[in-house]
Amino acid sequence: MIDLQPVKGTRDFFPDEMRLRNWLFDVWRRVSVQAGFEEYDTCVLEHEELYIRKAGDEISKQLYSFEDKGGRRLSLRPEMTPSLARLVLQYKKSLSFPIKWFSMPQCFRYERMTKGRRREHFQWNADIIGQPEMVAEAEILMLLISACESMGLTAKDIRVFINDRRILNSILSQISVPQEMHSAVLVIMDKRDKISTEALSKLLQDLGMSTIQVEQLNEYLSKSDLNELKKDLNDTHGIEELQNLMDLMVTAGYSNYLQFDISIVRGLSYYTGAVFEVNSPEKQHRAICGGGRYDSLLSACGGETVPAVGFGFGDVVVLDVLKELQRFPELPRTLDYTIIPFAAEQVGIALKIAAELRSQGSTVDCNFSMKKIKKTMQQANESGAKNTILLFPDELAEDKVVIRDMQLHEQKPIKITDLISSAE
Ligand code: HAM
What we know:
The structure is a single chain. The chain has helices spanning about 15-35, 60, 80-90, 135-150, 165-175, 180-190, 195-205, 210-220, 225-230, 240-250, 295-300, 315-325, 345-360, 375-380, 395, 415-420, and strands at about 40, 45, 65, 75, 100-105, 105-110, 120-130, 160-165, 260, 275-280, 290-295, 310-315, 335-340, 365, 385-390, 400-405, 410-415. By secondary structure, it is an alpha+beta fold. The chain folds into two domains: about 15-325, BirA Bifunctional Protein, domain 2 (2-Layer Sandwich); about 335-420, 3-Layer(aba) Sandwich (Rossmann fold), CATH 3.40.50.800. The strands form three sheets. Strands 1, 5, 6, 7, 8, 9, 10, 11 and 12 form a nine-stranded mixed β-sheet that branches. It has a five-stranded mixed β-sheet with strand order 14-13-15-16-17, sandwiched between helices. A three-stranded antiparallel β-sheet has the order 2-4-3, with no helix packed on it. β13, α13 (about 345-360) and β14 form a beta-alpha-beta unit. α1 (about 15-35) packs antiparallel against α4, α4 (about 135-150) crosses α10 and α6 (about 180-190) runs antiparallel to α7 (about 195-205). The model has no long low-confidence stretch (mean pLDDT about 95). Histidyl-adenosine monophosphate binds next to β7, β11, β12 and α12.
């Protein structure tokens, strides 16, 4: 007997779940298009080297990678951003910057399975490439907030926790951590919520930081006020930009959503500026969405530096959040008509009526089970049909059918030609 369960950490989508997934994808696609983003896609298979990074990113250790029959090292994509960088580098000369692109890829990571983390997930990505000013961050944040609002989430339910990697870099410089260690230190700092303070200190010391530096770092990380930090740091890069972004968001009408949070680091080493995560105000969940500015990813892939900012917004956590808040949309199956023949010789006419109604845009199913009327009506009810079309021999002899309104429980004979023209 073969194993009937899906591969560990992956999901099957039965029709009910598929309706929910399509609803989510529709929200993502609609808000993206409304904000002027264009959709793109790439193959789920990529060259493994695209995901191998020196700083020790967790993602590099979570790859589903293998060698193909031609000896190539390949990987299922764990995220979309490197593929986007590859596309942009490939077609840079013909693209007119800034570009605003979105995608909804399925991603694979060999994760330790915890609540909100699976080995396969869908991740809406939206990125603006070629816009160095903070207005790109503002547009990106407005886009993801508008998606949340479209799902029925408000500023009471979610918060965008935001920081800037340049602030973290100036803290590290101020406590004399050498520049070349910054990326690796930040990857470790991102584990702050997941491991104990002692374990974190040990990892930082193993990397080469002294006990005093770790203490100093913790002291800086306890500060929650941007102005206070501004007084303490020699290099205030990032702080002013973040304040400008917050002002921009206030003017745009999104002030309630944003909160400065020095503990937001992000585990991907390519971020260079603003970094953010969306969560409930009390941070009860894994991040619903995460992103930031990554001006040097394209240069790391072999091109020139190109400013870029974007986010990834997974399907798993947001659906958990909506479920907990009892904000799942009602998504019953619906059909305009179910056509019910009662004898084999009526099948042809049933198919013909179905084809005519479908060509006029109606959703139509036929029930060819030839079961008794009670059973077929019950099945039509379960399928969400608004009307049933009953093919009784007496009416058919007069080129008529019986149409039954399933909500009003009323039925009447109707000429087939009238039925078809009334559906136009
Ligand atoms: P990330 O933080 O690794 O960023 O993932 C972004 C989002 O994808 C997370 O906040 C979460 O919603 C979802 N996600 C990630 N891993 C899993 C998982 N194992 N199970 C379920 N959901 C998951 C990135 O991937 C960046 N490439 C995002 C980005 C785009 N930055 C700039 N542009």
